[in-house]
Amino acid sequence: MKVSGLHHDAGGGVHLLPVPQGVSGVLLACALDIVGSAPDAVMAEFEVDTVVCLMEPEEVDRRFPTYAAWLVAAGPDRAVHAPAPDHGVVADGIAAAVAADVVARLEAGTTVLLHCGGGYGRTGVVAVQAMVALGMGFEDSLVAVRAARPACGPQSDAQDEQLRRLVGGTVAGDTGHPGVHGGTAMAAL
Q1: What is the pLDDT of residue 169?
Q2: Residue-wise pLDDT tens digits, 85-123
Q3: What gap in Å lies between CA 89 and CA 122, rounded to an integer?
Q4: What is the per-residue pLDDT across 3-50, written as a single tens digit (0 to 9) for each?
Q5: Domain boundaries 15-166, CATH class
Q6: How distant, in Å, are the alpha carbons of 6, 27, 94, 115, 146 from that of 3?
Q7: Domain positions in the chain
Q8: From residue 140, how far is each of 19, 121, 136 by CA, in Å?
Q9: What would the DSSP string read from start to end of the chain?
Q10: 3-state secondary structure labels for all residues of 21-47
């Protein structure tokens, strides 16, 4: 559900992503264009506690060089930089750890703003992982994320396959490796 006003429409808006009942935190999603030029103002406007940037450093620096510096200066309570390639994936353990961090923040009652370049692919993958870890089924999570922010979710076969591995869904040619369930795997970091 879009929660931003007209002044954010050019950047695609800010959307409230659903979290399961009983979770006290708030999960928001947007594109870099929303937060990149004025992260502190966006955090204040939407009462955000932590911004999670899923873009690679050169992507951020190319579009908003001052935001790259802000991500470092803001500190780990206010900003998490968890880079992943556009339309690509990082190692499963790292992806699971990012989602587990988001889950912990949501369970603690904080407001988390996820973003990547457009706020769809990488953002949707982390959002779906978090929602499954919080108790929603995979398909229900994917439908809920896409209903809240149209087109949000995996945007490549690699993202879809990783998401299904990590949340216990099945993937064609699955090797039988146990997936990460409940967002509890913080190994590999």
Answers
A1: 63
A2: 999 999 999 999 999 999 999 999 999 999 999 999 999
A3: 8
A4: 877 778 878 899 999 999 999 999 999 999 999 999 999 999 999 999
A5: alpha beta
A6: 10, 11, 30, 15, 15
A7: 15-166
A8: 11, 17, 6
A9: -B---GGGGGGT--EEEP--TT---EEEEEEHHHHSS-HHHHHHHTT-SEEEE-S-HHHHHHH-HHHHHHHHHT-TTTEEE----TT----HHHHHHHHHHHHHHHHTT-EEEEEESSSSHHHHHHHHHHHHHTT--HHHHHHHHHHHSTT-S--SHHHHHHHHHHTT---TT--------TT---TT-
A10: CCCCCEEEEEEHHHHCCCHHHHHHHCC
The token duo for 173 is 């040619």
**Would you say 93 and 185 are in contact if contact means Cβ atoms under 8 Å apart?**
yes
State pTM to two decimals: 0.87
Question: Which residue type does 83 have?
Answer: P
How many other CB atoms are found less than 10 A from the CB of residue 136? 22
